Every structure is written in structure tokens, then in C-alpha cells.
Amino acid sequence: MVNDNLLGKAKRYRWIIFWTLSFGYLLVYFHRLCPAVVAVDMMRDLQASGALIGFLGAAYFYPYAAMQLPAGLLSDSWGPRNTITLFFCIALVGSIVLGMAPTVFIAILGRTMVGLGVAMLFVPTMKILAEWFHAREFAVMTGILMAVGGLGSLVAATPLVWLSSWIGWRMSFIAVGVFTLVIALLVWFIVRDKPADMGWPSPAAEPSPKAPPSITLLEGVGKVLSNPYFWPVSIWFFFDAAVFFSFGGLWGGPYLLQVYGYSKSQSGQILSMLAVGMIVGSPLLSYISTSVLRSRKKVILLSSVMVLLLTACLAFLTDRIPLGGHYAICFGLGFFSSAIVVVGFTTNKELFPVQMTGTATGLVNFFPFAGGAVFQPVLGYVLEKQGKVDGAFTLVGYQQAFLVLFLCSIIALVASFFLKETLE
Asked: Could you tell me the residue range of the domain that residue 328 belongs to?
């Protein structure tokens, strides 16, 4: 009876932990996509070229990609709670440095610190959820977490436009830094790595007959990298994310402002559809994959076809898209290019035994952020090469930049044909 009472406490308290971590993940997505709506202001104030602003946007992704495997190691050795708290404090400092930066190079340093800090949330959170939630609940919790990340994308659009119009983009980033500190403190005081830390039994406990054999880190890395089906997933992640992060995370905002002359507020409203697509698509695509088509591969393949069509519109109808078309394109990219990663992560997870899930997730999670890191500055270089007219990039520049994204979507589609069907 006493044990049942403690188990009940654990089941209630885990939701407090989950929502605390979810608000942290909201912040991760906010930082990831926020440059899109303030990129033009930053270029003006920092007197930066398109290529440099591209590197500024991508500076988040380099450390984020590089820290995925170390995130798992630190979570295992030092604990998820300690790891998240410390690195969110680094993100706090980075956000303040970004807001106060006198030059674009200092701004790049600040954004690099932000990327380093928030990189340490996703993998530690997966470890915490595995301790507090049963395996059959895990996929649902991951889907909810991704949907909350979509809310972060939403906040990075119109609300950031309002805030930056009110107090400027610099003070906006400083304000976000303060909020980052609040999240770090909440994680420290509320989150616990496992129920045993509070003297409670684990709701995730299995009455399993036999524990699976343990695998060392090096063995796990070797098994993942030597699996031929790991690489099509990774290539698909790299080029699919290149499309979403390049347009939704940076260059979509300047495109709407400079080619169509939309106001900053209207551009923010259009870009907010990226988040709406992600919020709607994350649970829906998972449901379609599991219960309707009963296939991971078919859902990823169909989504890749849709991304190809969307980037074709951007590349070949660059200045002839009606207002409603821009809303539809942004919703479609959020749905088919961002929300689909839930199915991608599930596919990768199902390629390997359960005791290798952390290693496999950490390794594959490198690729989407590497895609963003590479192609944000590539598009900036392409835009800059075509020159400017009255301080704005040219239509030809955007056409060539979006042609790069069209080629990325072709490669992602080809990779999706080579995926292994893991839902059997």
C-alpha cells in the first residue's frame, strides 16, 4: 500500500518534470529559428553581408551538431539535470553577448554559445523520460515534446516581431537570455534524473524477464556506423533539414520582406505557419505512419515528394506566389519537412536494439543540424554573389538560392527510396 502511494506520487510528479523540460525545449526551438524575422535588422545594425549573416544563423548549428554524442556521455556520467542546468547558463551568457554584440563576429560568438548551451537538452531529456515513463508511453511523450518545440517556432515568428518592434532585436535577445536563466533554475530545483532520487519507485519499471546485454559506447558507435541502413536515414536528415532550417530558420524572412515588400509583422505571421505545420504534423504523421499506412518508409517518401514540390514553387515561381501561397508553403514545410523528423527518429531507433537507442539517436541527430550549419551560409553566399539593389538582395539571388534548396530536396527524396521499412 505504501509502495502504491509512492508510485502514485511519482506518476503525478513526472508531469511537472515533463512540462519543465518541455518549456526548455520550446526555448531550444525559439533560438533555432528566431534569426529569420530579425535578419534584415541585424544585417543593417551589424553592417554585415549576407554570407556573414548566414554564418551567424549557422553558428547555432555547428556546436549543436557536434555536441549530440557528448550530450549522451555527460547525461550518463554527470546526470541530465546537472548537464541541462550548466549548459543553459552558457546559453544565457551567449544570448546576452548576442544582444550586446558591437560587431557581427561577436554576434557569431554569442550565437555559438547559445547553440552549445541548448544542444544539451534533447538527449538528456530523452534519458529522463525513459526513467520516468513506461516504454509504451515514450513515443507519445516524444510527440508532445516535439509539438511544444513547434510552439517555440511560433514564438520565434510573430511574437518576436512584436517584441523586437517594441524594444529592438538587441534587448529582445537579452530578455530571452533572462528567460533562459529562469528555465535553468526551474530544471535545477524541480527536475530529478530518476524517481529513485526522491525515494520513489519507477513508473517505467518493467517486469521483464531478463535485461538485455550491455554494449559499450565504442561498440555501439561501431554498430551504428557499420549498419548500411543508417546512412540513407542520415543523408535524408541532412538534406531535408537543410531545406527547413535554411528557409524557416533564416532566409525566409528577408525573402518575404525584400521580394514581396511585406511588413515585418505580416512576414512574421506567414513564417508562423512553419510552427503550425510542425505542431499539427508531429502527432498526425506519427499516427498515419503507425495506424493508417503501417509504414515508416512510405510516410517519409511521400513527405519528401511534397518538399520537392514546395521547393520547386520557391525556385521557379519565386516572385509569382500569391499571399495565400506563402502561407501554404510555410505550413507545408513545417508539416512535411520538420514534423516528419518524428517518423525519421522512430525509423532510426527501430534499426537498433533498445540498449543502443541513445547512441543511435545521438549519432543521427548530428546530421539535421549539420545540414542547417552548411546551407544557411551557402545560401547567404549565393545571395551576396548576385549583389544588392538599394540594400536588398536581388530576385535572381533568391531564385538561385532556392534552386539550391530544390536540389537538396531531390537528394533527400532519392535517399528516402533507400530507407529500410522498420515497421513490421
From this structure: 2-197+217-417
Q: Domain for residue 346, yes or no?
A: yes
Residues in the chain: 424
Q: How many structural domains compose the chain?
A: 1
Q: Which three cell numbers stand for residue 105?
A: 563576429
C-alpha cell at 56: 551567424
**Which CATH number do you get for residue 384?**
1.20.1250.20
- C-beta contacts of 77-83 below 8 A and 24+ residues apart: 79/193, 80/124, 80/125, 80/127, 80/128, 80/191, 80/193, 81/124, 81/128, 81/187, 81/188, 81/191, 81/192, 81/193, 83/120, 83/124
Amino acid at 34: C
**Mean pLDDT over residues 152-171, rounded?**
84
Residue 159 is assigned to a structural domain of this protein: yes
The CA radius of gyration of the chain, in Å to the nearest whole number, is 21
Has residue 206 been placed in a domain? no
Reported as a single tens digit per residue, the pLDDT across 324-370 is: 999 999 999 999 999 898 889 888 878 887 667 667 877 888 899 89
Residue 242 falls within a domain, yes or no?
A: yes
From CA 82, how far away is CA 411, in angstroms rounded?
39
Q: Are 203 and 11 in contact (CB under 8 A)?
A: yes
Q: What is the pLDDT of residues 214-232, one digit of tens each?
A: 666 678 788 889 999 999 9
Instruction: Quote the cell numbers at residue 207.
Output: 517486469
Q: What is the pTM of this model?
A: 0.81
Comparing CA positions, the residue from 62, 109, 410, 53 lying closest to residue 253 is 53
Backbone φ and ψ for 160, nearest 5 degrees, come out as -70, -35
As given in the structure block, the three cell numbers for residue 290 are: 503507425
